[in-house]
Amino acid sequence: MSAQEPLILIVSGPSGSGKSTLVEKILELPGTMLSISCTTRAPRKTESDGKWYNFVSEAEFKSMVEQGDFLEYAQVFGKNWYGTPKRWVGQARDAGKDLVLEIDVQGALQVKAKLPGAVSMFVLPPSRAELEQRIRRRGQDSQDEIERRLERAGKEMLSYSSYDFAIINDDVERAGKEAQAIALGSRCRVTRNEDRIREILKSFGG
What we know:
Largest sheet: 5 strands, parallel
Number of strands: 9
Number of helices: 8
Structural class: alpha/beta
Shape: globular
């Protein structure tokens, strides 16, 4: 019997919405693993290669695009490139785990087009004011960058209806439980369990 295709769990949301925290909550569930994206941007002081991102040169990224290595890829703010390598789907299948993708709206739509069975969650902040406070508290961005992030957030949130689920992250503990519940519930879809169900039915003579 061939290995079951992994459940693909997509988590998107504006910068500062708390999506990384919710991804960490999903990864607390047994049988999950993270897809590590590639990016051409420079690592921040708190980041190390291979944890959340693999940092590559623009030439390396373009070479990967030409070789068809990405499940999805996009350019953000007209400068840095981000992409999800296809190999993670195979690694999740081989490991018998579900794959969690933390990607932006452009990437999520690309993945859903290629893998319609993927389950997508959109994380929203409770308000623009709260999002701005969160971004400022990080202390990583200039005023121009903050304004650009807020403008982009407003545009990204218009895509909420393209997602299967929306999580309003006004209480991180509750939001984390909701993200886990979506992941667990998605594992119980009839379409994911038909082979096993048929085997059970056979034992009843069905």
